[in-house]
Amino acid sequence: MPAQPFTLLVHKSATVQKNYHIFLSDDRHYYSVPYQYIGKKVDVRYNEISVEVYYQSKRIASHIRSRKSGGYTTHKSHMPDNHRFMQECSVESFLYWGKSQDTMIHRYLEEVFARRPHPEQAFRSCWGIQRLGKTYGIERLKKACHRAMAFDQYGYKILESILKQGLDKQDLADEPPALPVHENLRGATYYS
Question: What is the pTM of this model?
Answer without folding.
Answer: 0.51
